[in-house]
Amino acid sequence: MFHIHTAHLLADYGYYAVFFAGLLEGETILLLGAYAVHQGYLHMLPLIACGAAAAFCSDQFYFQLGRRKGAQVLQRHPKLQKRFAKATAFVDRHPIATVMLMRFAWGLRIVFPVTLGMTRMRTALYVPLSALASVIWAATVAYLGVWVTGVLKTVIGNLHHYELTIIGMAALIGLVVAFRHVRMS
Length: 185
Hints:
It contains eight helices and no strands. By secondary structure, it is mainly α. α2 packs antiparallel against α3. The longest helix has 34 residues, at 123-156.
C-alpha cells in the first residue's frame, strides 16, 4: 500500500513547491511553508527566500508585460480597463508606495505591476524596489503563518494528524485563487 509521509514530502519538495506554486499564488503556499517551518520540516530563511523569489519573478513578468504589451492587453481584456484606470490614478500619485505595497493588494497584484510597466517608471528603479518589497512581503506572510500555526497547535493540539488535510486544503485554495487570477488576466 502506498503511504504518503508528509514530513518527507514537505522536507524534500517544500521549497520547490513554494517557489513554483508561488509564481501563480503566493500567500496560500507560503502559509503552508510556514506550517512546515513550525513543524520543523523546513527552515525560515530559505522559505522566505523562495517565496520572495517567486513574488519577484512574477512581478517582473507582469511589469515587463505592461512595458511591452500593456496597451494590447487592455484592448483584449476590457474588464481590466476599469481596474487599470483606478490603478493608474493611484500609481501616478504614489509610484514607489505602489511597488512597496502591491504584494499586499489582493486582486490588484497583476494590475499594479502591469500598470507600473506602462508608466514612465524606470526599470532600474522598479527592480530593486520590487526585490525589497518581495522580501518584506514573504517575511511578513511567513512569520504570520508560523504564528497562526502556533495558535492552531495551542487550540487543536497535535497537528500531525491533520497534515494531509491541511496540505489538501492549501492546494485547493491555491488552485482556486490561481485559476481566478489567470481568468481575470
